[in-house]
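sanity check this:
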Amino acid sequence: MQRRHFLKHMAAASASTVLSMYVPQICAWAQEGQSRPRFFIFVFASGGWDPTLVFEPKAGLQSIDIDPAGQVNQVGGITYLHNTGRPWVKTFFDEFHDKACIINGVNTQSVSHTIGTEIMMTGKAGTPSPDWPTAISSKLGSDLILPHMALSGPSFSGTIGGGTSSGSGFLSLLLFDGSYYTADATAEVVLDAHIQRRFNNLMGQFQEEGRTGLRQPEMVESFRRWHDLKAIKADLGADFEDLDGLGSEGVALATAFERGYAVTGTLEAHGSWDSHSNNFPQQNEGFNDTFEGLHTIVSRLAGRNATSGPGTLLDQTTLVVMSEMGRTPKLNGANGKDHWPVTSVMFIGGGVRGNTVLGGTDNFQNQEMIDYSTGLPSSGGSEIAAVNLGAAILEYAGVNPADFLSASVQPFRMAFA
């Protein structure tokens, strides 16, 4: 028997206060009488990407250093920087440009990794605010056992995450040691029998000692949730085994959406994004891996039927791809780029205004003001910040932004058709 699996299982019998919502009867979305849900996948490139390498080519400017091997490409309404050394960027846009919307010149309001991440995911920093997927799942999936699956990317549960956000501990119980190990079948049988005996003994002990307060029903609830998780694990099957990157994790999320277990998820775009040295090689590798993963996810979504009604699963699913900051316009002495508070965000899929590039920066990569009615630069416009994008995401999801944000926040709706 492997001790790590024993500890994972035993966590179920002690973590009842972490996730204390009731367990629903799991059923398919297409069951008669259920409305068609919207799903959301948030992909986060932790470390700070360089928007000029893909999203906003800045060719021909002395004020901005761009990839010397890059070439400006256009497909449909999308203009991007192409490099033959990272073919998946071109492959993705060639196939899915009509599903993608790029927003340039987004103000992250920070050059701190920690603060920038919190701002991009919640709209603000320093307060216990739920991130966009947690806020959405709290409204659209509150009756599900794992409405928000934070498989890898950052997660901010705020004050509502106890009943909505899966969290790393709960997912470890589902996936065992993270995403890379599966318990031996014989070990599972032994562990199951052990935990059942342990539970029965504890319940008998509580009864004999007259300990019938809150602890006993909490233990019963935890045990029930553990059994439900095991049923989910069996139902999700092979798609939740050997998760080793963005593509496989996205496919797993798609399966969870189809089976009616979740409505949102967060994933990590793996890469050495914090490129203070050797900016172009590091960023190119990160973008190639990320766009390969995005291609896998979007292809899977586009190849599956919607859970209810016409169209595909991609028509139901919106992907939001972001980073916590950008990189400086000029290279430093180590051929790297340092932290910069202006970045780009890409939306893909359901509800998105495809073939579109919005926002922008000037010749020094400073944010430009944007006309919110056109999405284009305007001297009399307003800035695009994370909170404006988040408000629009919530609004598209059918969630009132005022439930989580100040009523004065203006949603930047132009990313949605």
